[in-house]
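hey m, so remember when u said the tokens were messed up on ur end? i reran from scratch. heres the input so u can diff it against urs
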Amino acid sequence: MTGIDVTVATASGSTPTPVASRRRLRLPASRGGMAWMVVVIIIGIFLAAQFGRQVYANWEIGQRAAAIEAEIAAIDAQNAELARELAYVRSPAYFGPEARRLGNLGTTGEEALIIQRGAEEPLPEELAAAAEPPEPLIEQWIDLFFGPGT
């Protein structure tokens, strides 16, 4: 067991005889070595597959974490933009122009120009033609294929 031969002394005082040590279980050399090697290879393949699965799982978790971090960064940027907009809306720089626009109010020293309905000057002909809305697309296609005025 420990590599030391144990001897037993006999009562007659003769030379001690070594105790028979346990023999190791050995398979025949031709198949035994191959059988153990096959078992070791199978276990090695199993361990390599498990290790590969763990590496892939860790990589996939890292990819998901990077995607979530990118999403969080985008949301933080959007929140910062919204916070800047909210700060502007709450500031006097927003209230003054909005009050004047909605209530037709002015501040001290401003001159208001009031144009009554119907008092406008008509546009020149070249600007009036440019201001007309274009024909609907279906009519443009019909004019293209069949000629104008069909």
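this time it looks ok to me. The helical segments are 29-90, 92-103, 125-131, 137-146. if urs says something different then somethings off w ur setup not the seq
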